[in-house]
Amino acid sequence: MSRRQSDVQWQRLCFHADLGKLVSSPETLTGGLLHRMYLVKTTKGNYAVKILNPEIMKRPEAMKNYMNSEKISNLVSNHIPALPANVINGRIVNETDNQFYMVFDWIKGRSLKHIEIRTTHSKKIGSILADIHKVNFEELNIEYGGINNGHFIEWHSYLEKGQQASAEWVTLLKRNIDKLYEWESKSKKAADVLSSEIVISHRDLDPKNVMWHQGSPVVIDWESAGYITPMQDLIETATYWSTDGRGNINKSRFLAFIEGYIKNSVELCADWERVLETGYLGKLGWLEYNLKRSLKMECSDEDEQKLGSVQVTETIMELQQYENSLPILRDWLSNEQDV
């Protein structure tokens, strides 16, 4: 598509959403692994526009999930610094030219890279997570469908498809396939044990989803929001904010996150063995999705396929690194609980 054609489409979107007239061509923003984000400058102001992945929008539950996630972000924005989507024409998710999109006010700031994160950042996000867990979401009447979806992933099926396609990740997947079944079994059993206590949370509160400006954070990208067990959410998020990006977990940042959470919540008391085992679940689900993208089973274009292939390799490595970190995390948490 030419730049002129693209600008015409953007002009129609801006007209449909009553954003004003374009003053320059939209700028592509980096960081999104599912959708495409753009900075759109108009006569009325600056906006962040999320063009939703068409493959995801084909899912029967997609629209309902987006509506629920934005209900959550709107309510929680009364308690923490959060950025909900704008309501356009009475809707949160809109469509023009057969393309679904969401509009957000533009905010100053940027997300932090792993090497930029300090203990002060980790502690602050730990406190924010505790605030999210304390919000009463009952008025939203969001249906609870269970933590564990029940079905097991057919990893061998993906391996066979990958071999047929000569996928670059085949050797790595084959070498770890027994581990995938083991990790999935452990995590699902642990989730069942812990499912008696649940909260609604962001569920993807990693550094890319927090914008910082002059030391103050704003939580963005609420599309994964939903039910989760609080201690699973705590450990997964603490790990996000304490990794160095190479699989190593910084003890000071990890414990600072826990400290921030405790200060704003209650004394921790958990079956850490089970909690840590649930940490595989999100990574396994992300791995399956990217296998589908890489194999063109759920993929909109070549760029997305390539991204899926890269994410398959990275996610398997993250799973390996997570398993290696479990004894260390277990020791830190046990000592923290004994204090």
Report on this model:
The protein has 339 residues and is an alpha+beta fold. It contains eleven helices and nine strands. The chain has two domains: 3-105, Phosphorylase Kinase, domain 1 (2-Layer Sandwich); 114-338, Aminoglycoside 3'-phosphotransferase, Chain: A, domain 2, CATH 3.90.1200.10. It is 49% helix and 12% strand. It has a five-stranded antiparallel β-sheet with strand order 1-2-3-5-4, with helices on one face. A two-stranded antiparallel sheet has the order 6-9. It has a two-stranded antiparallel sheet with strand order 7-8. The longest helix is centred in the last third of the chain and has 37 residues, at 302-338. The protein is globular.
User: What radius of gyration results from the CA coordinates?
Assistant: 21 Å
* SSE pattern, N- to C-terminal: HEEEHHEEHHHEEEEHHHHH
CATH level 1 name of the largest domain: Alpha Beta
The residue-averaged pLDDT reads: 91
CATH architecture descriptor of the largest domain = Alpha-Beta Complex
Distance between the termini: 61 Å
Identify the CATH homologous superfamily of the largest domain.
Aminoglycoside phosphotransferase (APH), C-terminal lobe
Oligomeric nature of the chains: single chain
Compute the number of structural domains: 2
Which secondary-structure class do the elements indicate? alpha+beta
